[in-house]
Design brief:
7 helices; 48% helix
């Protein structure tokens, strides 16, 4: 009954613009880095099916990078920011158009230029008070030698014992000598220990 009633209706797509208050250029950078890596894998392979898959994935990631840039441009940055950083509009224009170029090209250098633009935007983002309040993954844990006091979504949700073999570490781990997969956020804030590999296996520390 309802299907017949709405059979001639036009399908509409809408976006719920919920102000979640969480923004970070890292989202765009992750997608842009995927563009670069996928383009590199394309050139390293002679498997035509794999290469076609690389083209598809690279185009999707480039579109996602463009989307995250547009969200920052339209929703995060305010007129006061564009007055303080007059190059910001032009930088976003270049970055979004570079994302479009990355969709069309399999040259890793095109994606690398996109990453460079995003890094410039991120540098401005973290100079703003708003960015330090809403951002999730700061490139460093200090501005002027001070650590960021505000907890972020990258913080662990449950307190775990501190690792014993990494002096000064603030990492909360599942146990004292294992790194929890997906919880390597602390590497952004503390120098990593002298290890050969850091993964979900036991750390092999080379302590001097």
């Amino acid at each position: 009954m309802l299907s017949r009633l709405f059979s001639s209706a036009t399908v509409a797509h809408a976006h719920c613009d919920l102000y979640c208050g969480v923004y970070d250029p890292a989202q765009a950078k992750i997608e842009a880095l995927s563009v670069v890596k996928t383009a590199q894998k394309y050139h390293e392979s002679d498997d035509e099916a794999f290469r076609q898959r690389c083209v598809l994935v690279k185009e999707q990631r480039a579109e996602e990078a463009k989307h995250h840039l547009m969200v920052l441009w339209a929703d995060f940055f305010a007129p006061a920011h564009f007055e303080e950083f007059p190059q910001l509009h032009d930088l976003f224009w270049k970055a979004t158009h570079q994302a479009g170029e990355a969709k069309k090209s399999m040259d890793p250098a095109v994606g690398e230029q996109l990453v460079a633009y995003i890094d410039e935007i991120a540098d401005i983002f973290w100079q703003t008070d708003k960015g330090r309040q809403m951002g999730v993954y700061p490139p460093k844990c200090a501005w002027g030698g001070r650590r960021v006091a505000r907890p972020t979504l990258a913080s662990p949700r449950r307190v775990r014992p501190l690792t014993t073999h990494q002096p000064g570490s603030i990492s909360y781990q599942r146990c004292e000598s294992f790194a929890e997969v997906g919880a390597a956020w602390w590497l952004l804030c503390r120098p990593s220990p002298a290890v050969r590999n850091a993964n979900h296996w036991r750390f092999v520390a080379l302590l001097a």
